[in-house]
Specification:
Elements lengths: L2 H18 L5 H28 L5 H21 L2 H9 L7 H14 L5 H8 L4 H24 L1
Helix pairs in contact: 2-3, 3-5, 5-6
Length: 153
Amino acid sequence: MSGKDDARERARYAQLVERFAPRSEMGVGLFRAFWVGGTICAIGQVIMDLYTNWLQLGMQAASTATSITLVFLSALLTGIGVYDRIGKYAGAGSIVPITGFANSVVSPAMEFRREGLVMGVGAKLFTLAGPVLVYGISGSIIVGLIVFFLDML
């Protein structure tokens, strides 16, 4: 095949890709991600206010309880199939808050539950979340050591 024929083939391929590629509406996607992620965060703030005002928890205890509640609700919604629909609609808006992390842990566990508790759920539970945990824990140790040694100076 000559260079001229090769260029024609590339041009035809580019036209096919342009014709069949799905259109991405970035503005709509950004708006959906923003309002869904913001709503999740607002729900978290309401939960934290309830813990602080109704249960009279301190700020740190209320923050911890709020995180636990959001993780639980996300895992529950993932289990009944609602969080996946939210993710399809909102995209990154549903994965940025802590709820996205819970979803990434529960989804592989549900997918591989047929393979058994040990080799299915146990082995695949941290497929996506494992790297996040490793880097998060490692990063916190490094930052903790830096702060510790800086305080000694």
